[in-house]
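Consortium newsletter contribution from the modelling node. Members have asked for a concrete example of what our holo predictions look like. Here is one, prepared for the iron/sulfur cluster complex that several groups have been discussing at recent meetings.
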Amino acid sequence: MKVSELQKKIIELKKEKDVCIIAHSYQSQDILEVADYTGDSYKLSIDASKARNKTILMCGVRFMAETCKILSPEKTVYLAQPTAGCSMADQMDRQLISQVKKMYPDYAVVAYINTTAELKTICDVCVTSSSAVKIVNNMDAQNILFIPDCNLGAYVAKQCPDKNIKLLNGGCPIHACVNTDDVKKARAMYPGAELLVHPECLPEVVETADYVGSTSGIMNYAINSDKKDFIIGTEISIAEHLQYMCPDKNFYILSQKLICSNMKATTLMDVYNCLAGRGGEEIVLDNATINDARKCIDEMIRLGG
Ligand code: 13P
Ligand code: SF4
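And here is the predicted structure:
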């Protein structure tokens, strides 16, 4: 079947079944084209909570689908591809952080949204890459335990010098693969191009960037800039999407290592199969988990809105 035919069937099915398709910007172009909402983690969590449909189909990774369920427990939420986890979210669990909390009883726990619903239940506030600096600055607490991403945490600590921020040794293995040699090579290959990076990259890489921001931040910066050439330091799909959106500009990939297999796991056929009732996974969370995890997501919306 042609991609366009499959897309047509998906659009018919989602209308018939009252399903809202939500896709993270790292998804492939054919999926983004059938989605009702696209964007970074923060935008998606807000969009999902405002959607009026009875069912949400998340094309992204598991923690994103869990966040939708926490914000809209009355809705049926599906993850289009059940194997799509997040290597960072899987690094720290509730048991580990409960132990760490005992070591730092007077620290507020700030959890990157890339965490499991279960872990969120014992955290004070959630952040996303686009809202972390603002939220940490707006918090009353001085002592902050930032989990799980030590690279995003280091970036936040630099932007919030008045806060005492403790980091643990977690992070995104994909973004953390890029090093300063990759930056040197890309700068030499594309002289004059601006380097835009995600704060999940190593601090020494972030330091060399012309712009640091979330997925949407990077996209908006490049779209609105007068410059023509950009090196993109996040998952390679963003450079591809930007090239498609801005054909008069040039987008180069910082490193071929920037490929997230989890984000690449979902296919257009998965979306179709899930809508047709023979694929995907319904996200099921118990009420206690939803209620406790919701507190830290509500704090994110209150302090970051
Ligand atoms: P954003 O918050 O920028 O969407 O990032 C999510 C993510 O998983 C990046 O690797
Ligand atoms: Fe998780 Fe990293 Fe993939 Fe983002 S790029 S979904 S943080 S593994």
